[in-house]
Structure formats: structure tokens, C-alpha cells
Specification:
elongated, PH-domain like, three-stranded antiparallel sheet, alpha+beta, about 15% helix
Length: about 100
């Protein structure tokens, strides 16, 4: 199935090294296909996703929430995922709900 949208997100890892907290950010992407949503370590069939939502934090980014039948998964996004959420709602949600 074809790719509908891509949303960058950031995975932050924190470690304690020599008594100091060290943060490391890894840039990743969420891919929205007609039949699934894919992240680096997870794949959600579209039939399991009920919605996507966003909570703004700071000036530009925030948290993207993926609401599934297995729970809610959150992803830290550096910018608004408005177009990603719109792609989901226009191309997919109307077909399943």
C-alpha cells in the first residue's frame, strides 16, 4: 500500500554517566500507510487505531498520541503534526469508522 504521510519524532534517552544525567536525542519518523502506521519499533494495523491527537508543549512541538485498541502510545514531535493527523482522518478514519 502507498505511503500517505510521514511525521518526524524524537526519541530521548537519558543515562547517568559519572553521576551526571546525559540526554541523547535520536530523530525518527512515523510512516502512515493505507493499511498500517509504522514507527522504528512498532507497527499498528489501521483497524487497531481509533484516532490520532496532539497536545502542544512549548513553542512548536508537543506529543502526538496514537489511540489504539492496545492503549495510547505517545511520541514527542518537534513540530505540529496537523497535516499527518489530517491525512489519517481524511484517508483512513472515514473508511473504518
Amino acid at each position: 500500500m502507498g505511503l500517505l504521510a510521514v511525521q518526524p519524532y524524537v526519541k530521548v534517552r537519558r543515562q547517568i554517566i559519572d553521576g551526571e544525567i546525559v540526554s541523547e536525542e535520536e530523530e525518527r519518523k512515523i510512516y502512515l500507510y493505507q493499511d498500517r502506521l509504522v514507527t522504528k519499533h512498532r507497527e499498528f494495523p489501521i483497524r487497531d487505531i481509533s484516532d490520532l491527537s496532539f497536545r502542544k508543549m512549548g513553542d512548536e512541538g508537543g506529543l502526538l498520541y496514537v489511540h489504539t485498541s492496545r492503549g495510547i502510545f505517545s511520541y514527542t514531535v518537534p513540530s505540529s503534526p496537523e497535516s499527518f493527523i489530517k491525512a489519517f482522518r481524511v484517508h483512513i478514519k472515514k473508511e473504518y469508522f
